[in-house]
Write a structure and sequence with these properties.
The protein is of the alpha+beta class. It contains 7 helices and 15 strands. The protein is globular.
Length: 329
């Protein structure tokens, strides 16, 4: 089916972005393969657990491993990427004899994979950096601050498959045509609303949240016409899905520190940094409770961070509660 609108195809849209743009085109091509695998996952023996756990202790699904292997193989076979840091690999993977390549990728190959077996949308999140020096890529190249990202984005395998990315010049969304598996510009120049009516958090941890987080959750549920409250609670259990909805419609996603996870659960390098880059490029905000996510200097591949991300006014309000813990009534 040809698209019934004269839409711009990804590779021509991104032509002037150079090698990072070519890398994004390659990631999208692999994403289209993952999308097709997910479409028929129920018909093939690729659902369910792999029997392994990743470094973070998450149960690894068969499709986590398949997606991880697909992305790594395609990145290595390309001619731009010198190394990959993945949620599914204990350590960074530096491609040997690829010293001429300048860009590295950090990724969560399949975010929200616990949802796959129940047909809830999942996604791939990626972050692109340029290595800091000529010569071989080194592990320290993977630990740059998020503010030094060259580009970042995600693929969302939902009711349709989308690619959303930024290379520092705003945020654009592309929808995959299932027949051609090409991506077409469907959401140009995405700007996230300054405020929204949705807040996303796992209420199951309420008792374990800080006083400030509890007070902000109560604030979200209080009736107040002037500030459009109560807000709606929406939490899919797949960060990419919650993030994408809030990006387009306005809202805040929170995964704070808890007693069980004193540094939060979500990973800085391949979940929070790329989505923080996207959020800020679209006019939003992303903090860890006090600092800008993109200002954090990483030290470990799988380090976690608390995260409050989304509409700027909502993130600012949530931060007011983290300092004062005052329920403004
Ligand atoms: P919880 C998926 O495992 C994930 O990394 C995010 O995609 C999601 O938002 C979060 O964890 C869900 O975690 O503890 O609420 O089940």
């Amino acid at each position: 089916m040809s698209t019934n609108r004269n839409l711009t195809e990804l590779s021509s849209f991104i032509a002037d972005v150079g090698d990072p743009g070519k890398l994004i085109v390659d990631l999208a091509a692999t994403g289209s393969k993952v999308s097709q695998l997910l479409d028929k996952a129920g018909l093939t023996d690729i659902l369910g657990e792999s029997g392994a756990q990743n470094v973070s202790g998450d149960e690894v699904k068969k499709l986590d491993l398949i997606a991880n292997e697909l992305f790594i193989a395609d990145l290595k076979a390309g001619n731009i990427c010198c190394g990959v840091g993945s949620e599914e690999n204990e350590k960074v993977l530096i491609f040997e004899d690829r010293d001429d390549r300048s860009y590295l990728v950090l990724m969560d190959p399949l975010d929200g994979s616990s949802n796959i077996d129940v047909n809830v949308p999942v996604g791939t999140i990626f972050s692109i950096f340029k290595k800091e020096n000529e010569g071989p890529c080194s592990e320290s190249d993977f630990y740059q601050k998020g503010s030094k990202q060259i580009a970042a984005g995600y693929l969302l395998y939902g009711t349709s498959t989308m690619l959303v990315f930024s290379s520092g010049e705003g945020v654009n969304g592309f929808t995959m045509d299932k027949e051609s598996t090409k991506f077409f510009l469907s959401h140009p120049k995405i700007q996230t609303p300054e405020s929204g009516k949705t807040y996303s958090i796992n209420h199951g941890y309420f008792d374990d949240f800080s006083h400030g987080v509890k007070e902000y959750i109560r604030y979200c549920g209080q009736t107040d016409e002037e500030t459009n409250r109560p807000y709606s609670s929406r939490y899919v259990g797949s960060m990419v899905s919650d993030f994408h909805r809030n990006l387009l419609k306005g809202g805040i996603f929170m995964y704070p520190d808890t007693g069980k996870n004193p540094n939060g659960k979500l990973r800085l390098l391949y979940e929070c940094n790329p989505l923080a880059f996207i959020s800020e490029q679209a006019g939003g905000m992303a903090v860890d409770g006090s600092r800008r996510i993109l200002d954090i200097t990483p030290s470990k591949l799988h380090q976690t961070t608390p995260v409050f991300i989304g509409s700027a006014n909502m993130v600012k309000k949530a931060m007011e509660f983290q300092t004062t813990g005052h329920f403004s009534g």
